[in-house]
Design goal:
Rossmann fold, 6-stranded parallel beta sheet, 25 helices, 14 strands
Length: 638
C-alpha cells in the first residue's frame, strides 16, 4: 500500500542510475583485465561489487593501468553508493508510509472513496474539501490520482478488498465512505468488511460513519437489503409492533363484547396504544430503523431520474387536451441508463389525452433488448407502444424514419454507453431532423460539452457530475420528497386505521389488519418506494398538463413556481387528473408483475383495481381524486 507510487519511483531514480553506470563500468573494467572470461562471468563479478566483493579479484593479474583502475574504482564505489542509498530510501519510504497512514488513521470527519472509475472520479471532483478526502485506488496508472493529490486529497494505492487495508484507514473517525469500484460484488464485500470492523471495534463509542455502495443490479440490491434486515434482527419495527398490539387488543375487546363491556384495563391499553401511534413521527425514527446508515444506490437510476426530471418528453411538447396527438419518443442506443430511462417513461408518460405513449428504440442487438424488456416487464404493452429496431443508429436513414412513422418525433434521447457514440448518434439525428427535434445527449466522461450556448434544441451535459455527489447520495436527496410523501401517508393512515378498528368493534365486524406498507421508508419494499417516487415525478406531469410549470428551472422545486391551484376547484379537471393518477398507479403495479384479479392477492400479485378508471368503484375513484386534491400539500412537503 503506497501513498504516492509515482513520487517513490522518482526517489529511486538516483540509485537506479548509479546501478546502471556501476554495472556498465564494472563490465568494462573486468573485460579489460580478463578478456578471456565469458560475458556471464564478467557480469557475475560486476554484481559482486554491490556486495563489496570482487575487489581483490580485480588485481589477480597484478597492478593495472591507471585508467582501468580508475574505471574499476568508480564502478566499485558507485555500486556501494547505490546499495546504501537504496537501503536509506527504503527505510525513509517505510517511515513515510507509517507517518502517512497515521495521518489518515487519525483524521476526523473525513470521507473515504473506494474506486476511481467514472463514478468515483465524478464524486471526487464534486467533493469540495479535498483535504478531507481519502481515495483508495488499486490502479496506479490512473491519470487522475496526481491531480487530486495536488488539490489535497490523500491517495492510498491499494486493493480495498484487502481487509487489512480497510483496518488502517480510520473508519471509526470517518464521516462517510463510498464503495464505487464498478463491480457490485466487490462493493458489497468492501461494505461487509467495514461492518465487521465497526462491529469489532474496541472503541467505546460506535462509529456513526455513513456507508454507501453503488449497486447496478436491482435484484441484487433487493436481495442484500432483505438479508441485512434479517441479520440485524430488523424484520419488525416499533411501528409495526405497536400496530399489531393494537389489533390484538382490539380483538380481545371485541370478544368481550365491545368497549362498553370489556375490562377497563383493556380499553385503557387501547387508548394508550392509539395515542402513542397518533404521536408517531416517521421522519424522526426512520433512520434509526436502519442501523449502520447504509445507502445502496444505483447511479444509473439516479442518472435516469435526473434526465427525466429536467428533460421530460412533455417539456418539449405539452399535452393539455384530450385530443392531442400521441407522445412520440425516439431512443438511439441502449445502456443501463437507457433502460432506467425507459422504465421511467413506462411509469410516468401517462397524459391527459389517454393515449399510450409511443417509444421506439434503435440500437445494436435491439432484438435481444426487446426480449429482455418483455421478460422483465411482461405487461409493457398495456402501458406504452414500445418497439425495438435492430439497427446501428449511426446508419439511420430517412427511409427507415418514414417506414417507422417517426415523423413527427417529440424528443430524441441518446442512450449509448460510450461518449463517442453519444456524439456520433446525436450528430446523425441532427442531420436527419435538423434542429426541429430536441436531442438530449448526456455524456459520462467528456467535460467539454456544456449546456450554455448550445445549438438550438441540443441538450448536452455531463450526467455523472449531476448525480455522483456523495453528500446528496448519503442524504438521499433524490428520494427526499418521496420519503416525505410516504411519511405523510403514514400520518394519515394511522388515524384511519384506528377509526376502522373502533367502527368494526362497535358494529361487531371482522377487524382489519394493518396495511403491510405501514413501515418506515428504509423498511419498505422497492416497489412501494418506486411508487412514492412516481407520485412525486408525475405531479410535474399533471401540473404541466394544465399549462402550469412552464419554466424547466422550476422542475426541481415546483413549490417555488407560483402555481395557480384554482384547478382544484374545477371538478372536470380534477376528474381528468384523477384518471391520469390511476393510470400512473397501474403502471407501477404492472411494472412489478401485478395483474388484474377479482380479489386482491399479494402472493399471486392480483389486484381488483387494475382496470380502466371508468370501471372503478366510486370509493376507489375518490381515492384518486383525493390524491389530486392533495397535490398542493405534496408539492410543499419538505
Amino acid at each position: 500500500m503506497n501513498d504516492d507510487n509515482s513520487e517513490q519511483g522518482r526517489q529511486f531514480l538516483i540509485p537506479i542510475i548509479l546501478t546502471i553506470i556501476a554495472t556498465v563500468l564494472g563490465l568494462i573494467s573486468f573485460h579489460l583485465v580478463f578478456p578471456e572470461y565469458t560475458f556471464l562471468r564478467k557480469l557475475y563479478l560486476t554484481f559482486q561489487l554491490f556486495t563489496m566483493e570482487s575487489g581483490d579479484h580485480f588485481y589477480a593479474n597484478g597492478p593495472q593501468p591507471i585508467p582501468v583502475t580508475v574505471i574499476f574504482n568508480l564502478a566499485r564505489y558507485m555500486a556501494v553508493a547505490a546499495l546504501v542509498i537504496t537501503i536509506v530510501l527504503a527505510i525513509i519510504s517505510v517511515l513515510r508510509y507509517k507517518y502517512f497512514v497515521s495521518r489518515v488513521r487519525f483524521m476526523k470527519g473525513h470521507t473515504i472513496l473506494c474506486g476511481l472509475g467514472e463514478v468515483g472520479e465524478a464524486m471526487a471532483e464534486s467533493f469540495r474539501r479535498k483535504n478531507k478526502l481519502v481515495i483508495i485506488e488499486n490502479d496506479t496508472s490512473n491519470e487522475n490520482l496526481a491531480g487530486l493529490k495536488k488539490e489535497g486529497a490523500k491517495i492510498i494505492e491499494a486493493n480495498a478488498l484487502d481487509s487489512t487495508v480497510l483496518g488502517k484507514i480510520g473508519i471509526d473517525n470517518a464521516k462517510s465512505f463510498a464503495a464505487v469500484t464498478g463491480n457490485d460484488f466487490n462493493n458489497l464485500t468492501i461494505i461487509n468488511h467495514l461492518l465487521e470492523l465497526i462491529k469489532n471495534s474496541d472503541k467505546k463509542e460506535k462509529s456513526n460513519v455513513s456507508l454507501a455502495a453503488n449497486i447496478d443490479s436491482r435484484n441484487l440490491k433487493v436481495a442484500i437489503t432483505e438479508e441485512w434486515k434479517k441479520e440485524r434482527g430488523q424484520p419488525e419495527t416499533e411501528l409495526k409492533k405497536d400496530l399489531q398490539s393494537l389489533q390484538e387488543n382490539a380483538a380481545t375487546i371485541k370478544l368481550q363484547g365491545g368497549f362498553g363491556k370489556a375490562k377497563s384495563e383493556l380499553t385503557t391499553q387501547f387508548e394508550s396504544l392509539a395515542e402513542k401511534l397518533l404521536n408517531y413521527k416517521p421522519e424522526g425514527t426512520d433512520f434509526k430503523s436502519c442501523e449502520g446508515n447504509i445507502k445502496l444506490f444505483n447511479i444509473n437510476q439516479l442518472a435516469a431520474r435526473y434526465i427525466y426530471r429536467d428533460y421530460p418528453p412533455d417539456r418539449f411538447r405539452g399535452i393539455t387536451k384530450t385530443d392531442d396527438p400521441v407522445m412520440n419518443i425516439l431512443i438511439l442506443g441502449y445502456s443501463k441508463i437507457g433502460e432506467e430511462l425507459l422504465k421511467l417513461c413506462i411509469q410516468n408518460c401517462h397524459y391527459v389525452n389517454r393515449k399510450n405513449t409511443r417509444v421506439t428504440l434503435i440500437a445494436h442487438e435491439a432484438d435481444q433488448v426487446m426480449k429482455r424488456i418483455n421478460s422483465i416487464y411482461s405487461n409493457i404493452h398495456k402501458l406504452i407502444d414500445f418497439r425495438a429496431v435492430n439497427k446501428n443508429p449511426h446508419h439511420l436513414a430517412g427511409k427507415l424514419i418514414v417506414e417507422l412513422e417517426l415523423l413527427p418525433v417529440d424528443v430524441i434521447y441518446i442512450c449509448s454507453a460510450d461518449d463517442r457514440y453519444q456524439a456520433s448518434y446525436s450528430s446523425r439525428a441532427r442531420e436527419l431532423f435538423d434542429d426541429n427535434v430536441p436531442v438530449v445527449r448526456p455524456f459520462y466522461l467528456n467535460k467539454t460539452w456544456k449546456t450554455t450556448n448550445s445549438p438550438k434544441n441540443l441538450y448536452s451535459f455531463n450526467i455523472l457530475s449531476k448525480v455522483a455527489i456523495l453528500e446528496d447520495i448519503i442524504s438521499e436527496c433524490f428520494d427526499r420528497k418521496a420519503m416525505a410523501v410516504h411519511h405523510r401517508w403514514i400520518k394519515l393512515e394511522i388515524p384511519r386505521y384506528i377509526d376502522d378498528l373502533k367502527d368494526c368493534i362497535n358494529n361487531n365486524q371482522e377487524l382489519p389488519y394493518p396495511k403491510p406498507t405501514l413501515l418506515p421508508w428504509h423498511q419498505l419494499d422497492e416497489e412501494i418506494r418506486d411508487d412514492n417516487r412516481s407520485v412525486v415525478e408525475h405531479i410535474n406531469v399533471k401540473i404541466r398538463s394544465l399549462g402550469e410549470l412552464s419554466d424547466p428551472a422550476m422542475y426541481k422545486s415546483p413549490e417555488k413556481a407560483g402555481i395557480n391551484y384554482d384547478f382544484l376547484k374545477d371538478a372536470d379537471k380534477v376528474e381528468q387528473l384523477a384518471e391520469m393518477e390511476h393510470r400512473r398507479w397501474m403502471a407501477t403495479k404492472y411494472l412489478y408483475g401485478w395483474d388484474y384479479g377479482a380479489k386482491r392477492d399479494y402472493f399471486l400479485r392480483l389486484h381488483e383495481s387494475l382496470v380502466d378508471f371508468n370501471q372503478l368503484d366510486e370509493n376507489t375513484k375518490q381515492y384518486d381524486r383525493n390524491q389530486v386534491q392533495d397535490i398542493e400539500d405534496i408539492i410543499n412537503l419538505k
